[in-house]
Amino acid sequence: MIDTVVIQPGPDTGEPSVAGVSWAAVTAGAVVSCALTFVVIAFGIGLGLSVVSPWDGSGVSATTFKIGTGLYLVVIAMLSSSVGGYIAGRLRSRWIGVHTDEVYFRDTAHGFVAWALATVLGAVLLASPASHLLGGAASGATQAAASQANQAGPMDGYVDTLLRPDPAAAPNSGQNSGNASDSRGEMVRLFTSSFRNGDLKPADRDYVSKVVAARTGLSQADADKRVNDVVTQVKADADAARKAAAQLAFWLTASLLIGAFCASLAATEGGGLRDGTWQRRATR
Length: 284
Known about the structure:
single chain; 2 domains
């Protein structure tokens, strides 16, 4: 007797008609994330201004402020990205006939795409006001230079230190009767162009020392020492600015990566709660 084997048709494995990406949910999550980011940043600015003081010994130290700012950036990224990712996962359309692992992946992708869109929107919204302010500042500086008005550049403070006269020697010296405006402008231009490349050339350093000696009434040895001290200060300040910018870049990178993770994780929770499968996911 021959047994008859009946093959039952398997379930339909075709893709559902619903799209894999709910752009409306992604956009909603990104907008919420951007709005919450701006709110928390505004609060952080007010909080920072309340703890910083221009007086020595008052308020927090510079190191504490920099670390606090970095940690606050991470908190902003965690909070705003988590809320935005949750919104993107909770508001997306339900996928019928899709495997649970695929649903989990799609929820994670929704959170990540919402974070990416929020990051791009935030960069655009912040870049436009910054460009406007920088353009206005550049235009104002150009007009001030054209009208020969007094303006302060990044090297003016160092030149002030260089050309500060010696109170004891200046009254007895006739060397300060030259064109102070011309020599000062020349020194500012020389410092600005030289420190773009790192340091003063030996010939420029000798020339600066002679100008300082002539303008201030100092001896040549004292003028050389003053020039060396000012050059050292310029390098120290530039190095401090470079390190501060590098630290800020590292904090921004860390906050962005943490924000991407939080948005993806929150989207899986929102999607699981949307479908009623979050408890099973958490248990597994």
